[in-house]
Write a structure and sequence with these properties.
Blueprint: H1 3-14, E1 18-23, H2 29-42, E2 46-51, H3 62-65, H4 78-89, E3 95-100, H5 107-119, E4 124-129, H6 136-142, E5 147-152, H7 157-168, H8 174-184, H9 188-200, E6 204-207, E7 210-213, H10 224-230, H11 236-248, E8 251-252, H12 253-259, H13 262-271, E9 274-279, E10 283-288, H14 292-298, H15 301-304, H16 307-316, H17 334-345, H18 349-373, H19 377-387, H20 394-403, H21 411-427, H22 432-445, H23 450-463, H24 471-475, H25 484-496, H26 500-506, H27 519-530, H28 534-550, H29 554-571, H30 574-585, H31 595-610, H32 640-646, H33 652-668, H34 672-685, H35 689-702, H36 708-719, H37 722-730, H38 738-755, H39 758-774, H40 784-787, H41 794-802, H42 808-815, H43 819-833, H44 838-845
Parallel strand pairs: 1-4, 1-5, 2-3, 3-4
Antiparallel strand pairs: 6-7, 8-10, 9-10
Helix pairs in contact: 1-2, 4-5, 5-6, 7-8, 7-9, 8-9, 8-18, 11-13, 11-14, 17-28, 18-19, 19-21, 20-21, 21-22, 22-23, 23-25, 25-26, 25-27, 26-27, 27-28, 27-29, 28-29, 29-30, 29-31, 30-31, 33-34, 34-35, 34-38, 36-37, 36-38, 37-39, 38-39, 41-43, 41-44, 42-43
């Protein structure tokens, strides 16, 4: 879980640099330090470990005496102990000083450490809370010599998924991962405790080889001790403030300031127990973090019995002032929206997910009660609209669809309810035929809705089978004035068929009467991506996502994130897309309309692992539904491309055959956009003539020319025309495909290595090096999370790149070093990367600058 952090500390220590490791309680600081100690002790480093204890911080010399120093009787002062300790650090060999929980070390031990550090250049690794206000004595110990700073951030969705699987012995399903992440706020200790105690309490059960939730709660009495330890440092005022917040729930900051002293709120925020979020409807709101703390208080009988506290809150909140609504202007440039996303990454997606859930649950409860009182189509549509984005209560949704009165319904409301009923039928496994039957019945019963019903049938048929060849006829001629519904369906079909310009034309303008208001911006944003306007698409999608987050719009967040994820991946912004998708996964499986986009993002995240030579044992792509076809209307909705890469054959010829068959199947169903994206990905991973020919034909037939430079370079690579390739790369002008060109060159290099063509591999290594020199940002591999966590030295990288197609003797002659040195470099690189062979090592680091 902390391999990258451990490796960074080891690299710092190897350079004689100390490290300060900071994080929230339970963030894994001690685990990281233990892993560092174990690794160094294996190499013969003498580790001197000191641990601060909460119960010993007032006992003089308690921490330093834990070292077991051999002291002479009567000599136990600061300088006496420092003399003995300094002499140990001066012994031959390498030494490391480790202080765990520096903030709990007693003052006398701090004095000894300060003295020792002034006398010795031994590096020190120390851990402390991230928000701790250090005393002068603690700073005196820390600020001696060079020091690096390592922040342990909360875990994101994928890391939580892996950690739960390690703890419970089997992977959790998507909703379980999301719920545990939300409750723990990504805190490793809480994740482990929640998973263990929920399993112990039978709140988690094994379902289809995955852990799933048996009830709607994860709280159990076995968690009480863990929470008490977490809150042990709070004073009475802070503890009472948390109790008050637990009673109020999510509340505006101005409301909290009426019942909680400002000092207490600031103290809780500084300690990490309070998070402030921007709510479009209510201004700034504050919530308890991690959220499981709120469960601890709400389940506590003492809190339920605090009548005086509840009376005080009620008395102070008789009148609550209205918070003026703040208008924010979204950034209009890519650099600005990326900066906003990176800033958001520093926040807590688990807290945001909880905020969404609470808002959706409140709206659902209110609207369901309204529908039960009056079962009109208008009330039904208002409730069902929530389920298009937020998690679905299928029993309740089915009841609403079957019991709603239709005789006095507004046509638009009736249409929405019927389309929702049709989609529920598909989601329940009845298939598209059942959905078409429901819509056809509406068209027969209410002729005035026949046009809209037929458009909906066309949409469902195209999205769950194939794009009709006579779509132009059934949707009318382009010069006709289409209805809002028809223009949306036409736009989607044009997008499926990879005609982005036509899709944009179909949804041009604004239509406030859209029955499905999120569909128009979705078509517009993804059409821009398909047209090659990647940056414009990213700005559009990220601005839309920011606004959707402020509005607590679950549907908008998922759809905009899907568009943005494709753009970020295409541009190589891997850390940003990892966070963006993690924030979506943290919300759990969404409503039945956008759940296919959710699965698509799971597969996109899984592609990072699938493209690695040594994929991890667990991939979150396994959480995506498997009962879907290989082909789908949009990239990732069909599982074929992911399965192709995930089960990539060692033989390029086998991969070519499978890729060609998949692309032809996608074209046969009319899903040309998905076929184009599959062909582009396969060309970059393992370039071949057959796949490239299909890609060229798709682009030519669609009239898209933005990829011309990439196609030219790909042809030169496939034909082995080194002279032409050199010229094309030399005169290459940056365009949306810059990252893809770098990926294509690395893919060709790996293919030549696998096929044993050393001469072609050397030539491609030179070409890749030249391109990487010009465009360093295009030089990060697709499976970005593997190499990034295990950095090699420049010389180790240089040797590893040649290890795939040269012998040790050849490498030694080329670099002017001994064969023994080459062997050492390869051994170190294998250890750091976890590769099991020379070829695997080369493929893992093949993205780095090859030797020139």
């Amino acid at each position: 879980m902390f391999d990258s952090e451990v490796q960074r500390i080891l690299d710092f220590v190897a350079g004689g640099i100390g490290v300060r490791v900071v994080g929230a309680p339970g963030s894994g600081k001690s685990s990281v330090v233990r892993a560092v100690m174990a690794s160094l002790e294996k190499t013969g480093v003498a580790v001197h470990f000191i641990s601060g204890l909460r119960t010993h911080r007032t006992i003089p010399y308690s921490a330093i005496k834990g070292l077991g120093l051999d002291m002479r009787p009567g000599r136990s002062g600061v300088f006496d102990i420092a003399d003995v300790f300094s002499s140990q650090l001066a012994m031959s060999g390498k030494h490391l000083l480790v202080v765990d929980d520096l903030h709990l070390v007693d003052n006398e031990s701090l004095a000894v450490l300060e003295t020792v550090r002034r006398r010795s250049d031994c590096p020190m690794v120390a851990t402390a809370p991230e928000t701790w206000a250090f005393s002068r004595g603690q700073l005196a110990v820390l600020n001696n010599g060079r020091e690096a700073h390592l922040q342990l951030n909360p875990l994101h969705y994928e890391q939580v998924h892996v950690l739960i699987a390690q703890v419970l012995g089997a992977p959790p399903n998507a909703d379980t991962t999301a719920r545990i992440l939300t409750k723990s706020a990504g805190n490793p200790r809480l994740i482990v405790r929640i998973a263990e105690t929920a399993s112990l309490s039978n709140l988690l059960v094994m379902q289809d080889n995955h852990w799933g939730m048996a009830t709607n709660t994860l709280w159990n009495e076995h968690l009480r001790g863990t929470l008490e330890a977490l809150l042990a440092e709070l004073n009475v005022e802070d503890f009472t403030a948390l109790q008050t917040m637990a009673i109020l729930g999510t509340a505006r900051v101005d409301v909290l300031q009426k019942v909680i002293p400002s000092d207490a709120l600031e103290s809780l925020e500084r300690r990490g127990f309070l998070s402030v979020l921007d709510d479009h409807h209510r201004g700034s709101v504050a919530v308890i973090t991690p959220p499981v703390i709120a469960d601890y208080f709400r389940e506590n009988e003492k809190l339920r019995d605090r009548k005086l506290l509840r009376s005080k809150i009620a008395g102070l909140l008789e009148t609550v002032p209205q918070m003026p609504q703040r208008n924010s202007t979204p950034a209009d440039r890519l650099s600005s929206v990326l900066a906003m996303l990176r800033q958001e990454k520093g926040g807590d997606d688990a807290i945001s997910a909880r905020h969404f859930h609470e808002h959706s649950a409140d709206r659902e409860r209110i609207r369901f009660e309204r529908w039960e009182a009056h079962k009109s189509a208008a009330n039904a549509a208002a409730l069902l609209r929530i389920y298009w984005g937020a998690p679905v209560d299928f029993r309740r949704a089915s009841r609403v669809c079957s019991e709603t009165r239709t005789y006095d319904a507004d046509p638009s409301d009736l249409l929405f309810v019927t389309i929702t009923k049709a989609m529920l039928a598909i989601n329940a496994g009845q298939g598209p035929a059942a959905a078409v039957e429901i819509l056809q019945r509406l068209a027969d019963d209410i002729p005035q809705l026949s046009t809209e019903a037929e458009d909906a049938i066309t949409f469902l048929s195209a999205s769950h089978g194939r794009v009709p060849t006579d779509a132009q006829t059934c949707l009318g001629a382009p010069d006709e004035q289409p209805s809002g519904m028809r223009s949306l369906v036409r736009g989607l079909l044009e997008l499926y068929r990879f005609r982005p310009s036509a899709a944009l034309e179909a949804v041009d303008g604004e239509d406030e009467d859209d029955a499905f208001p999120h569909l128009r911006p979705f078509i517009r944003g993804f059409a821009m991506f398909a047209e090659g306007r990647i940056d414009e698409s990213l700005v559009f999608a990220l601005e839309w996502r920011a606004e959707a987050r402020k509005n607590l719009d679950h549907f908008g967040v998922v759809t905009s994130s899907y568009i943005a994820a494709h753009g970020l991946l295409y541009r190589g912004h891997f850390e940003e897309v990892e966070y963006l998708m993690s924030s979506v996964f943290a919300m759990g499986r969404p409503g039945f309309v956008v759940d296919s986009l959710y699965d698509a993002m799971l597969r996109l995240a899984g592609l990072r692992h699938a493209a690695a030579v040594i994929p991890p044992a667990l991939s979150i792509a396994a959480q995506a539904r498997t009962e879907v076809p290989d082909v789908g209307p949009l990239p990732g909705i069909g599982k074929g491309a992911y399965e192709l890469v995930a089960h990539n054959s060692a033989q390029p010829s086998t991969f070519d055959r499978k890729a060609t068959n998949l692309i032809r199947r996608q074209l046969k169903t009319g899903y040309v956009l998905e076929a184009m994206m599959t062909a582009l990905l396969c060309t970059c991973i393992c370039p071949s003539r057959t796949v490239l020919d299909l890609l060229q034909k798709i682009l030519r037939d669609s009239g898209v020319t933005v990829h011309d430079q990439l196609i030219g370079i790909a042809n030169a690579v496939v034909e082995g025309d080194r002279k032409l390739l050199g010229l094309l790369l030399k005169h290459y002008e940056p365009d949306p495909d810059t990252y893809q060109v770098g990926m294509l060159l690395r893919g060709a290099l790996k293919r030549h290595v696998i096929e044993g063509d050393a001469a072609a591999a050397d030539a491609m290594a030179q070409a890749s090096a030249m391109f990487a020199d010009r465009f360093p940002s295009a030089n990060e591999q697709l499976s970005f999370n593997s190499f990034r966590t295990t950095p090699l030295t420049d010389r180790e990288t240089e040797v590893a790149v040649m290890a795939g197609h040269r012998s040790n003797v050849e490498i030694a002659e080329y670099l002017g070093i001994s064969t023994r040195t080459v062997e050492n470099h390869i051994s170190n690189a294998l250890r750091k990367t976890g590769a099991t062979s020379r070829n695997g090592l080369f493929l893992l680091v093949g993205n780095s600058l090859p030797p020139r």
